[in-house]
Design brief:
Helices cover 55% and strands 12% of the residues. It is α/β, with parallel strands linked by helices and 205 residues long.
């Protein structure tokens, strides 16, 4: 399970209290006092969630929310708000915040929100990794290695020559400008059967 929680809180006493609470729950808090300090950690591959105060000097919780969503819309942002700012927090939910918590916060409520948010984040990252793996497999299947691409090209050239020469290996070898035995060797390696191309010569127009 993911354990990182990026804390953005300008109140030193509250920030330290949150850090201690999370450490007691075996989580891994990253303590910052401002958006400017925290922004270096906000990345699309961040393996955790963000817990941010709404009201802060210079940059507030909405700045955090907008920046995080620009980096990764699936990064959960939990906002801390005073009682008088519940309407603001509700607006933040509409803007994409994962959840909000009123100050002074209830420890059990905080842990419940963080637990759900971390589980959500873990599923998001797992799904991305799975999709990336599938895309890599599809790409490899589509293009293949350099050796595979060269083999495909060689097969195509030989098969075209055989098709034009109605499956006659000697004539196909002449067309390709290589010895007959060399062509036989390539055909054996590529499992190309000459008779499969007989009567397949293109019709002259």
């Amino acid at each position: 399970m993911l354990k990182k929680v990026l804390i953005i809180e300008d109140d030193t006493a509250l920030r330290n209290s949150i850090v201690q609470s999370l450490e007691l729950e075996d989580l891994e808090p990253i303590s910052t006092s401002s958006f400017t300090q925290a922004r270096r950690s906000i990345r699309s591959n961040f393996r955790g969630v963000i817990l941010s105060d709404i009201k802060m000097p210079v940059h507030d919780g909405f700045d955090v929310l907008r920046f995080a969503q620009a980096r990764d819309p699936d990064l959960p942002i939990i906002l801390l708000t005073g009682y008088s700012d519940v309407a603001t927090a509700t607006k933040a939910l509409k803007d994409g915040a994962y959840d909000y918590l009123e100050k002074p916060y209830d420890h059990e409520r905080l842990m419940d929100i963080l637990s759900r948010a971390l589980e959500h984040r873990e599923l998001v990252l797992q799904n991305r990794a799975y999709r990336d793996e599938l895309d890599a497999q599809k790409s490899k299947t589509a293009t293949g290695t350099l050796a595979e691409q060269m083999e495909m090209h060689e097969r195509k050239v030989i098969e075209q020559a055989l098709a034009v020469e109605n499956g006659k290996v000697v004539e196909a070898a002449k067309r390709l400008g290589i010895p007959r035995n060399t062509l036989y060797d390539h055909m054996t390696r590529l499992r190309i059967v000459a008779k499969a191309f007989r009567d397949k010569a293109p019709t002259a127009k």
